[in-house]
């Protein structure tokens, strides 16, 4: 019987083989706090998480929830009978929010965290600075053969750097560039790589009206996204990198046109380094709306992330409550004035009284609706 060590390190591997390679393009794009799902066939899951008959042990799997994990990219060479690991590249930390077993697959729902810090640039074909430490500290038997992608190992400790959205996040971007240089080196070695690999990273979303950099937050029970204001304009910056010669092509921002009005919805990717800039306007809304902002390209000559964000557009309710409040005050005044005349046997204007009563009822209903 396998015993799960509660102090063990959870390692989630993404490889240079399909479909896991596309996961790493998403994982290096998204900022910290974003929720992301990794999916693994049970045959790639550690034996410590299985029953004796090879089925996944639900009780042990649930013990992973809340645990910090280390996402690591691996360079794999496929042989006739096995997958040979040539290099481990730790990328970033994450927290396991939930684990779901669906048939033969395990779905890992993660909240992405800090980046592993790299002190040295990628030089030529040199192996990355953390590879040897990973092997020595993890102490995994048969480390050279990829027979597991979800691992439990000895504790690993690497320096990290946070994923700042602030205006001055140069060090974070420099570190990201060192990581993607290594991943790019991996992609060149892949035998089945026939397309150019384009790396993207979200930098920030900024309110153009007040120059405020927006932060990710909880916008619904199970959604992390950006909380935006109606009638405000926003700018999104994305960094692009590739070390391959490419033909220029466009990355397009996709939004729900009923909620957002794009000002700059396309940005051209032309070369090794680019900063892609997008702008949109949040239309006036009478109630809060949750929608998505995504990025796509029609170019099939490149492998590139197609990320998607949640966004909540909040209404400025005081604008919409101002008129009902004013109408409520006026109608209440007329109603009370005419009502006092009526009960004191003075000549009351029935028209004003009816207008006041209808106005009071109507404005009250409007305010109750806007309060939702």
Could you describe the 3D structure shown?
This protein is an alpha+beta fold and 372 residues long. The protein folds into three domains: 1-194; 196-315, Immunoglobulin-like (Sandwich), CATH 2.60.40.10; 317-370. The chain is 24% helix and 38% strand. The chain has helices spanning 20-27, 58-62, 131-138, 170-189, 317-343, 350-370; strands at 9-15, 35-41, 68-78, 83-102, 105-116, 150-153, 160-161, 196-197, 199-207, 212-213, 216-220, 223-229, 233-241, 249-255, 260-264, 266-269, 273-282, 289-296, 302-303, 308-314. Strands 1, 2, 3, 4, 5, 6 and 7 form a seven-stranded mixed sheet that branches. The protein has a six-stranded mixed sheet with strand order 11-12-20-18-14-16, with no helix packed on it. Helix 5 runs antiparallel to helix 6. It is globular. The mean pLDDT is 83.
Assign an overall shape: globular
- What average pLDDT do the residues reach? 83
Secondary structure: number of strands: 20
Radius of gyration (CA) equals 28 Å
Structural class call reads: alpha+beta
């Amino acid at each position: 019987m396998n015993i799960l060590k509660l102090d063990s390190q959870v390692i989630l591997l993404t490889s240079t083989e399909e479909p896991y390679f596309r996961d790493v393009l998403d994982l290096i794009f998204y900022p910290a706090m974003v929720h992301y799902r990794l999916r693994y066939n049970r045959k790639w899951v550690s034996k410590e998480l299985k029953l004796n008959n090879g089925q996944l042990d639900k009780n042990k799997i649930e013990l992973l929830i809340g645990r910090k994990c280390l996402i690591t990219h691996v360079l794999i060479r496929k042989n006739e009978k096995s997958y040979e690991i040539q290099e481990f590249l730790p990328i970033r930390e994450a927290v396991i929010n939930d684990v779901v077993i669906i048939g033969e697959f395990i779905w890992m729902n993660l909240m992405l965290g800090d980046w592993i810090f790299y002190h040295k640039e990628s030089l030529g074909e040199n192996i990355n600075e953390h590879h040897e430490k990973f092997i020595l500290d993890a102490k995994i038997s048969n480390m050279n053969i990829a027979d597991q992608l979800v691992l439990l190992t000895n504790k690993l400790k690497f320096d990290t750097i946070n994923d700042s959205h602030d205006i001055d996040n140069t060090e974070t971007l420099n570190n990201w560039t060192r990581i993607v240089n290594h991943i790019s080196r991996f992609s060149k070695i892949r035998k089945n790589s026939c397309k150019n690999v384009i790396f993207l990273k979200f930098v920030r979303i900024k309110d153009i009206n007040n120059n405020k950099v927006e932060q990710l937050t909880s916008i619904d029970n199970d959604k992390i996204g950006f909380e935006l204001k109606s009638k405000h304009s926003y700018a999104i910056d994305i960094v692009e990198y590739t070390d391959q010669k490419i033909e220029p092509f466009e990355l397009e921002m996709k939004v729900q046109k009923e909620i957002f009005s794009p000002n700059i919805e396309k940005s051209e990717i032309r070369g090794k380094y680019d900063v892609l800039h997008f702008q949109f306007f949040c239309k006036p809304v009478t109630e809060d709306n949750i929608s998505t902002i995504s990025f796509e390209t029609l170019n099939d000559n490149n492998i590139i992330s197609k990320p998607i964000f949640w966004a909540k557009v909040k209404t400025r309710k005081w604008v919409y409550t101002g008129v009902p409040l004013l109408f409520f005050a006026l109608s209440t005044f007329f109603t009370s004035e005419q009502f006092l005349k009526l009960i004191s046997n003075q000549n009351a204007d029935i028209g004003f009284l009816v207008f006041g009563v209808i106005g009071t009822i109507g404005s009250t209903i409007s305010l109750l609706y806007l309060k939702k």
